[in-house]
């Protein structure tokens, strides 16, 4: 009998029984075992023959046929989702054999085994492809691992016992195939209970309130369902759920020692600067906020020969690349006069976990790049870095000189400076008072519009759901979800959410406030609002129009500020003061 490609016939299925004319049958468990073994062999064969260096001419034409849909039991989990089609000469590999769908009746155990195999292969492939495509060592697979580490092995909730006990999530940080919290399925009895949309958001809020109220029974029941709805590679609501589930699990753990390094490292790690710069480029709400700050500085210092900018979060210096180009363009329009000299002083608090003050470290590298850019464009640019606490800042410490037009850039930096709730010395207000004493021509303030400072845990949780839910949705409109940069941005955002919502005291280093509170602080420090010129606002609006990312982005002008929103949810606010 010729082979049919279906393993059952070669192993005796369909052969007449010796004594009764019926079919020789094997136990169902044995059939399932053989089928599972056969399918795993197919999948591992495909994995082993994935071509990475072969030329196109070495691929036989018949291997370009897509594999059958039923290999992984249905369209939703088919082999085509493994993304075996590589760039360039590589082609999809055909399975050496397949079973007709009509002849296979897999049980739940068989299906789960194959789906787990597919997931493991998929994570490995996507991680490798994303690294090679983006050049970034951080991918969505690593975000999965980070989220898994955040929620792994939560401390037992005292009020729970037996069946109500929160179960730890297994973690294998040494493996690239580690699954996220979203990958673990809830019990079968809870699958039908998984909510979506508004009901999912409401369940998150209810769970946070239960945690805040000490209602551990309700928190445990809800978390069992929410883990099944979380998916760090899903739609914005599923990705938000993955973030907020991590917040809830971290909150349920025993509080770490105050000021301990591991909690601070959540948001102050080596990828902080890179990920924040990627966010500023990917999101118009952040990018245009920095543009508004640049325009305010240019407006306040125009026609003046010497410009000195104090900056408290230089980052990778991307904001100053744009500022230097703007200065060069302005001089080109009026070539009669001499171009102004630009001096940038990066101020770093040596006690801040965000400060990299090693000799030859990040600040010096950024400064060299900025100075060389100015030199290429014929502009005199000088970059200095000083390391002082807020209480030590004065004109002498900052190197301020007579005849300079002084400007202060507080773009996404003030929220990371501790206030009265963290330290009795209140470095945040102390800094503002000392800046006011310098008499700057302008202070540009740009911050996220969210209260993760003075609000309670439940209040911060609700604010984060609204803010980061809108931000994740807006990122879908501006960048590819499967890019390496997106994985890096959202992994960093996830760590920020955990820190700003789940942590307390000195361990909470992300302390944003809404504009009303910034306005009160600026007023108490002696600053007055600066009315934005219509031309400045129009320039920002025109830039958004030229970008055309999505009609759901909007800009609103209110007195001395510009609000940047996604579908009505304000994400960032830029304001000017003197």
TrEMBL record:
It comes from the Eukaryota. Keywords: Transcription, Transcription regulation. A motif (VHIID) lies at residues 307-311. Residues 365-397 are annotated as: Leucine repeat II (LRII). Residues 502-578 are annotated as: SAW. The keyword Transcription applies. Belongs to the GRAS family. This is Scarecrow-like protein 8. It comes from Zingiber officinale.
């Amino acid at each position: 009998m010729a082979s049919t490609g279906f393993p059952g016939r070669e192993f005796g299925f369909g052969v007449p029984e010796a004594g009764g004319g019926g079919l020789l049958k094997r136990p169902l468990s044995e059939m399932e075992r053989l089928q599972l073994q056969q399918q795993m062999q197919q999948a591992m064969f495909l994995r082993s023959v994935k071509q990475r260096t072969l030329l196109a001419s070495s691929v036989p034409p018949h291997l370009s046929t897509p594999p059958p849909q039923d290999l992984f039991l249905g369209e939703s989990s088919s082999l085509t989702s493994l993304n075996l089609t590589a760039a360039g000469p590589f082609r999809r590999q055909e399975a050496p054999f397949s079973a007709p769908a009509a002849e296979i009746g897999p049980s739940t155990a068989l299906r789960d085994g194959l789906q787990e195999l597919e997931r493991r292969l998929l994570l490995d492939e996507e991680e490798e492809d994303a690294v090679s495509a983006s050049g970034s060592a951080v991918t969505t697979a690593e975000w999965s691992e980070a989220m898994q580490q955040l929620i792994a092995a939560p401390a037992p909730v005292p009020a729970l016992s037996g069946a109500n006990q929160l179960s730890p999530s297994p973690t294998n940080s040494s493996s690239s195939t580690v699954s996220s919290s979203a990958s673990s399925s809830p019990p079968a009895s809870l699958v039908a209970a998984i909510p979506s949309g508004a009901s999912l958001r409401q369940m998150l809020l209810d769970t946070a309130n239960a945690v805040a109220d000490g209602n551990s029974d309700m928190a445990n029941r809800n978390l069992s369902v929410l883990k099944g709805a979380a998916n760090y590679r899903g739609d914005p609501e599923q990705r938000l759920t993955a973030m907020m589930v991590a917040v809830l699990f971290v909150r349920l753990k025993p509080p770490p020692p105050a000021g301990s390094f591991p909690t601070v490292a959540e948001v102050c790690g080596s990828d902080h600067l890179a990920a924040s710069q990627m966010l500023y480029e990917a999101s118009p709400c952040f990018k245009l906020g920095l543009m508004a700050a640049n325009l305010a500085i240019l407006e306040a210092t125009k026609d003046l020969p010497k410009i000195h900018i104090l900056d408290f979060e230089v980052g990778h210096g991307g904001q100053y690349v744009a500022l230097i180009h703007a200065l060069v363009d302005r001089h080109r329009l009026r070539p009669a006069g001499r171009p102004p000299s630009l001096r940038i002083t990066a101020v770093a608090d040596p006690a801040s976990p965000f400060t990299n003050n090693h000799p030859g470290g990040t600040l010096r590298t950024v400064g060299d790049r900025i100075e060389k850019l100015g030199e290429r464009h014929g502009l005199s640019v000088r970059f200095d870095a000083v390391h002082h606490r807020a209480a030590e800042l004065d004109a002498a410490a900052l190197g301020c000189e007579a005849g300079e037009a002084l400007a202060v850039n507080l773009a996404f930096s003030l929220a990371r400076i501790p206030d009265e709730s963290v330290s009795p010395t209140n470095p945040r207000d102390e800094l503002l008072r000392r800046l006011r004493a310098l008499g700057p021509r302008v202070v540009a303030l740009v911050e996220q519009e969210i209260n993760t400072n003075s609000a309670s845990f439940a209040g911060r949780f609700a604010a984060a759901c609204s803010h980061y839910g809108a931000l994740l949705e807006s990122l879908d409109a501006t960048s590819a979800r499967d890019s390496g940069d997106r994985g890096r941005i959202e992994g960093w955002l996830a760590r920020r959410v955990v820190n700003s919502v789940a942590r307390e005291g000195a361990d909470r280093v992300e302390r944003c406030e809404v504009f009303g509170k910034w306005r009160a602080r600026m007023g108490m420090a002696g600053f007055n609002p600066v009315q934005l010129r219509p031309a400045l606002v129009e320039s920002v609006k025109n830039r958004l129009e030229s970008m055309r990312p999505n009609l759901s982005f909007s800009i609103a002008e209110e007195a001395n500020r510009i609000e940047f929103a996604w579908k009505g949810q304000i994400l960032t606010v830029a304001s000017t003061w003197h």
